[in-house]
């Protein structure tokens, strides 16, 4: 067996299931699940219909590179969304469709890491656990870059030691952040681009929450956008990961893409031809329909805004709570140990949230997820309102 398997941590939801085991919550209160970032809004009908119309594609072996029409739709969307000139992203060399960002984030690391030279993969802390698992299984050492209230929940690149930068082969950034919803600026992207050029590492930007933002006039900055506007029009050392799961409420479609540096993606494409991960043709056709429409995304954003407003209005007098600029998470500080908070909240109110320490590791003397819980406002607004009322009751005891 791969010896690196023993280094993998239990997944956060395995730990959560253990935390709740044996507890009988109040029978008169229906369970409200706010722990998993799984969108519950309806997948738009036109996406479902496109999928059904093209089920004849099941008779075909799909190609790893995907349909030219899909790659073109992705390239066009990327240029329009991130304010780059039409044609700035080459659909032939700078775009690859993937079966959701989780699959791509993991496999990308396996393709780009050279394990012979004590490699380091830098990642935000807290983080999406795929970053860590992918790094460990590729034979790399994770370096956890704490994001705390003191640094506005953003990575502080100046705090990374020189020795770590010299060994770094890949850095993960996540903006808007999971679990905090914070957004990196163009200046921060440009600083990281300069470091990547100096030390020779690749930037993997997880951007699956970019389309869920609070201010309609101020969408989150993307890495390719920052690179292009700062003169790096070839997106050297940059790769972004995008998904339809959150944007279009289609997590079961398993559809996303990677885009960026043509040289890096050329090698990653070679890896993927062996990995066995082409997207079914019917899924590709549904994805084309999704990337070509923005109205359903605007409607989706408004649903989340309404839930944030209602949820925060109820809780703002009972605890310290703030509205994130993006994502669908509330990163709530707890008045006690986060695991104990989540356990007691479930036991007394039948509401499930995720302990923040399950999303982070001890680093430089702290666990930045400690004394926080992640609350995913994915349930219908009525359930979110009910959950807020129960949490308020729990907090005021």
Automatic annotation (TrEMBL):
Any one Gene Ontology molecular-function term assigned to this protein's record: succinyldiaminopimelate transaminase activity
Q: Spell out the Pfam families in the cross-references.
A: Aminotran_1_2
| Source organism of the structure | Methylomonas rapida
- Domain of life, per lineage: Bacteria
Report the EC number(s), separated by commas if there are several: 2.6.1.17
Q: What class of enzyme is it?
A: transferase
Report domain Aminotransferase class I/classII large positions.
Answer: 32-391
Gene from which this protein is expressed: dapC
Q: What is this protein called?
A: Succinyldiaminopimelate transaminase
Family annotation (InterPro entries): Aminotransferase_I/II_large, DapC_beta/gammaproteobac, LL-DAP_aminotransferase, PyrdxlP-dep_Trfase, PyrdxlP-dep_Trfase_major, PyrdxlP-dep_Trfase_small
Q: Which keywords does UniProt give here?
A: Aminotransferase, Transferase
The cofactor required is:
pyridoxal 5'-phosphate
